[in-house]
From TrEMBL:
Gene3D superfamilies: 1.20.5.430
Protein name: Heat shock factor-binding protein-like
Coiled-coil intervals: none
Pfam families (UniProt xref): HSBP1
Classification lineage: Eukaryota, Viridiplantae, Streptophyta, Embryophyta, Tracheophyta
Amino acid sequence: MEGHDSQDSKQSAADMTAFVQNLLQQMQNRFQTMSDSIVTKIDDMGNRINELEQSLSDLRAEMGVELSPSPAAPAKPTEEMTKEDGSA
């Protein structure tokens, strides 16, 4: 009988190993699919942002507004700004 129990436990271990390997493969496939989907969406968003920037640039050109060298550069302080911070 002991040999039969040993054979059953070996088969059980082999079945469990196969099950776990299959489960891990399925998880890997799902993560890869999700990763690919996220990368595609990020690329699409980047393209949409580029199109939006181009549209804004075109609108500025149509309006005759020149682009400043750095959009983040602060503008000249207005009268309100100088009163608030006490400068000028």
